[in-house]
Amino acid sequence: MLKEERQHLILDKIKLNRKVLSADLSIELQVSEDTIRRDLNELSAKGLIKKVHGGALPVDTKAPSYEERKFSNLKEKNNIAKKAVSLIKNGQVIIMSGSTTNLQLAKIIPSDINATIYTYSLPIALQLTEHPSIEIIFIGGKLNKPAQVTVGLDVVSSISQLRADLCFMGTGGINVENGMTEPNWEVSHIKKCMIEASEKVIVLCTNNKINEVKRYPVTPIIKINTLITDLNSKNEIFIPFKEKGVKIL
After folding, report:
1. Where in the chain is the domain with CATH 1.10.10.10?
2. How far is residue 249's CA from residue 239's CA, in Å, rounded to a whole number?
3. pLDDT tens for residues 205-223?
4. Measured distance CA(147)–CA(34) in Å, rounded
5. Alpha-carbon gap, residue 61 to 160, rounded angstroms
6. pTM higher than the cut 0.70
7. What are the DSSP E strand ranges found in 28-85?
8. Nearest CA to 94 among 164, 194, 195, 191?
9. Dist CA 59 CA 48 (whole Å)
10. What superfamily would CATH give domain 68-248?
11. Which CATH class is domain 3-58?
12. HTH deoR-type domain spans which residues (predicted)?
């Protein structure tokens, strides 16, 4: 593979995933880590990326769009969805947040499942219209266009009146000390209401969200029943979570 072609691939991966790791690129592109470091140094010198220890980030600070997030870490999100779908049973009332991992879950709910799903996510509601026996209740409010979810007092009021068996939610970050956190205040408030309205709280997150901390707190770790990630549940990173009573899938 030519250097120019390799660097174009690196730029594409940064644009899609919002970060790359030198070790991962070395394996995927079948070149040495020294070669990857030289590529990253050149791209950084041209102002095309921001080089950091162990990898690189995009130079812009703009949050990725919903479409960009929808296709990032897709393999990991599919693995998480396959674990989560086993928790859905006939007759349940479920609340789903607007995460792109939840979107993958919505795509694979078995056709013979009969359940009621509340969501404030426009893409998830539309995806569930393809399911033959799911009752969909879309929670309306002010539309946050970049995230494609509704927000505001109407959403909070509607959720606070629900009683759900499960809530499936994504997260901006999660660790034992800070619990679950979000970068957006309105979303953090909605998720607090989801937790209060639900019998069991299921957090779906890719491994890059583990031990991340965002600005706004949602809930302490002890209020989370199950954490589902793309990692093996026996990974030592989960030891402190298990000590707090969180089930890992």
Report:
1. 3-58
2. 13
3. 999 899 888 889 999 999 9
4. 38
5. 34
6. yes
7. 49-52, 55-58
8. 164
9. 6
10. Translation initiation factor eif-2b; domain 2 (3.40.50.10470)
11. mainly alpha
12. 3-58
